[in-house]
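Researcher: Structure prediction, please.
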Amino acid sequence: VQLQASGGGLVQAGGSLRLSCSASERSFGTYTIAWFCQAPGKEREFVASIRWNGRSTYFTDSMKDRFTISRDNAKGTVYLQVNNLKPEDTGLYYCALDYGLGFESGSWGQGTQVTVSS
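Model: Predicted structure follows.
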């Protein structure tokens, strides 16, 4: 399954964005999807994930009050709604699919850049 992330951009602190992760195959709907962020000069970090049925979601503590993850399997898309953005949220946001062996062994999109100005 190939993934494509989109929706990033340049926003002021306090602003919002909706990131989208689109899949190339209908089987997308059977897998857990996650978002990761790689800030400048830092390692890639987990942001949020959602199970195949959308009933279970997980967030990193620093973002759980501001970010929402959802999915529309009929459209083959997972969304990350990011609100009240902070400069430290700046980074390249990737979506990833877990085939069952962990995200590192799964499928990754190319990333979408989010830049938050103060």
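Model: The CA atoms of residues 99 and 106 lie 6 Å apart.
Researcher: Thanks, that helps.
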